[in-house]
Amino acid sequence: MKIKLLLLVIALFAISKLYGQVSDNPVTAVILSGYSERAYTSEPVNDQQLDEILKCGIKAPSSRNNQPWKFTVIKDETTMKDIIKDAIPGNVLIIVSGIESEAGTTPDFDCGLAAESMFIAAHGLGLGARIYGSPAANINSKKELFQIPSGCKAVVVLRVGNIDKSVDAVSAATPRKKAEEIVNFKK
């Protein structure tokens, strides 16, 4: 496992160096080289990978350490396709649900942090991941079907799967805006 992780970090570093995003830190290397994949194989995500991804979601930061999230893991192809039409066997969907809003809390934001932590974990394990927001309304209209806990609402869905290696990460990724377009430094 350590050799695989080392090889992954080396490969991610090489890709990021090749395309101008360079970092000597393995975490930032994963972040800078990641993108939201659209092409997956049917090779299943294994239980050890899924467990590690979920642990990273559990450890995400949250306002007041409320940890207002619940994770519903879906592996069944039929149920996955009720949420995301192009889901394939071997993928895993993780519905990130948050407690119904309480005054002064930020469960939706906190759920987003948990999803992002799992997204980064998936990439760190050499898997692909994509975060979806639009399926939440459909899921919330059928909470019992998707086993959303009482008092919670679906916020986002994280898709995790093995990446189709024939798809080039650079040409498949949507171009990012330049820092000058986004970052403002107060003088």
Task: Map the helices and strands.
Layout: H1 2-18, H2 26-33, H3 47-58, E1 69-74, H4 77-83, E2 92-99, H5 107-124, E3 128-132, H6 135-141, H7 143-146, E4 152-161, H8 169-172, H9 179-182
Antiparallel strand pairs: 1-2, 2-4, 3-4
Helix pairs in contact: 1-2, 3-5
Q: Which terms would index this structure?
A:
187 residues; alpha+beta; NADH Oxidase; four-stranded antiparallel β-sheet; 9 helices; globular
Oligomer: single chain
Low-confidence stretches: 15-20
Architecture of the largest domain, according to CATH? 3-Layer(aba) Sandwich
Characterize the overall form. Answer: globular
- CATH H-level name of the largest domain... which superfamily? NADH Oxidase
Total individual domains: 2
The share of residues in helices is 40-55%
Instruction: Give the averaged pLDDT, no decimals.
Output: 85
Main beta-sheet strand count, sense and barrel state:
4 strands, antiparallel
- The side-by-side strand order for the widest beta sheet comes to 1-2-4-3
Describe the structure.
The protein has 187 residues and is an alpha+beta fold. It has two domains: 1-33; 37-168, NADH Oxidase (3-Layer(aba) Sandwich). It is 43% helix and 16% strand. It has nine helices and four strands; from the N terminus they run αααβαβαβααβαα. It has helices at 2-18, 26-33, 47-58, 77-83, 107-124, 135-141, 143-146, 169-172, 179-182; strands spanning 69-74, 92-99, 128-132, 152-161.
